[in-house]
Design a protein that fits this description.
Elements: E1 4-6, H1 30-36, H2 39-43, E2 48-52, H3 59-71, H4 86-93, E3 99-102, H5 111-120, E4 131-135, H6 143-154, E5 160-166, H7 174-177, E6 181-184, H8 190-201, H9 205-214, H10 219-227, H11 229-240, H12 248-284, H13 298-338, H14 357-366, H15 370-387, H16 392-402
Parallel strand pairs: 1-6, 2-5, 2-6, 3-4, 4-5
């Protein structure tokens, strides 16, 4: 039977002082941290955990901090998670022999990846109290891969711990959910995200707050927007797309533009990394960049290219999903404006897109009250279609056609 602990927004700006240092990188989540730092939890943790929460809530960050707390070399339970001992620092670096973190840059985990992880789980801890396996994006397991993992969770090796991360419990098969201890992370507050970006990343407070608001409190996306002007510009282009669509041809053009924007974002982030990986591989094979690759070594390069192609596909998928979230935020703003009866107070609404206030006020006056609700439904359906591998251009054309507003009756 699974157990769920819900978090609430942390309102104490000095929350980090109450918990060991490894938890300072998590925005809010006070109740979750309190649960995971209890002496009884650190002394005898459940053998399998499911950390769920919306993207940007910090579920992977919480999983790593929990792993650090469990292997920390401090004797006092209250001090575990110091962030300074060799165990804590090697977990942070991804090199601790007893903490394995599996993350995928592909659309799905392969069954071979999961089998390899399950085989490793049979080993006893090398240096720590526990052998810990963190699986990020556990919702990306196929049903076959999940069944491979299930047996290890049902009959865990001694002193082995599993931590699975997913957006919601419904994204993981019931057979897994029922055998895990579940923790639900909430979306952190605007203040928590802003404070984290300022204290951890040294960002300007005003820029950090603006980015946190535009990112809808998604910590990673807020950091990315605050640090990259080009990312901020692209996001602005995306959210402006529906505001001027009035015809079918404009809807098709908007779909083409959104596909191009997300592909460009994925290509920009991949170009330098791909080149570095190729150069590193060639050096390891004893080749210079301008040398012809001997036939017997070409399979190494081909495998790298296949991995990079899969990663780019995942990057495009993720960029499209973020665009859907940004568009949902736009229509949430329209909905908020329409439901404020006093027009003089509409400028005081806390919008996700405050820089578009005037355009949103005009747009809200020209569409029916049902339009933003219908738009939100269309965007959500598009997200589901994209996850089902519907070609992006087709899915987005259908969405933008649904976003063409109908003028209210006189």
């Amino acid at each position: 039977m699974n157990h769920t602990v819900n978090s609430s927004f942390a309102t104490d700006s000095h929350l980090s002082r109450q918990f060991p240092p490894v938890w300072h990188h998590l925005a809010g989540q006070r109740h979750v941290i309190a649960q995971l730092t209890r002496p009884e939890t650190l002394r005898a943790p459940a053998h399998a955990w499911l950390f769920t929460g919306p993207p940007g809530s910090g579920r992977s960050t919480a999983a790593r901090a929990f792993a650090q707390s469990l292997v920390c070399q401090r004797e006092e339970l209250a001090e575990r998670g110091c962030g300074q001992c060799p165990a804590c620092t090697t977990v942070a670096a991804g090199s601790h022999p007893d903490v394995k973190i599996l993350a995928t840059e592909k659309v799905n985990y392969t069954i071979e990846e999961v089998r390899s992880l399950v085989a490793e789980a049979q080993d006893r801890p090398a240096t720590a109290r526990w052998r810990i396996f963190i699986m990020e994006d556990a919702d990306r397991m196929t049903e076959r891969a999940t069944n491979v993992l299930l047996k290890s969770i049902e009959e865990p090796p001694e002193r082995t711990l599993w931590i699975l991360c997913a957006p919601s419990p419904a994204d993981v098969l019931i057979t897994i959910r029922s055998r895990t201890r579940s923790l639900n992370l909430a979306i952190p507050s605007l203040e928590d995200v802003t404070d984290l970006l300022v204290s951890r990343d040294g960002l300007d407070p005003q820029r950090a707050r603006c980015a946190a608001q535009l990112a809808q409190h998604h910590v990673g996306m807020a950091r990315w927007l605050a640090s990259h002007d080009e990312a901020m510009r692209r996001r602005d282009e995306v959210v402006r797309l529906p505001l001027t669509i009035r015809t079918a041809s404009a809807a098709v053009a908007a779909a083409e533009e959104l596909v191009a924007l997300t592909k460009q974002e994925a290509d920009d982030s991949a170009t330098e990394r791909n080149a570095d990986e190729r150069a590193s591989l060639l050096r390891s094979l004893g080749l210079n960049a301008d040398e012809t690759i001997p036939p017997k070594l070409r399979h190494h390069v081909k495998r790298l290219e296949e991995e990079q192609t899969a990663r780019t596909k995942r990057s495009v998928h993720d960029a499209l999903d973020r665009a859907m979230i940004d568009l949902s935020g736009l229509y949430r703003d329209v909905l908020m404006i329409q439901h404020v009866p006093d027009a003089t107070t509409r400028h005081d609404i806390e919008l996700i897109n405050p820089h578009l206030t005037d355009q949103l006020l005009d747009y809200a006056r020209t569409v029916t009250p049902a339009h933003p609700l219908n738009a939100l439904q269309a965007i959500n359906e598009t997200r589901l279609r994209l996850r089902s591998n519907v070609p992006p251009q087709l899915a987005l054309e259908a969405m933008f056609l649904a976003l063409i507003p109908r003028r209210p009756r006189p």
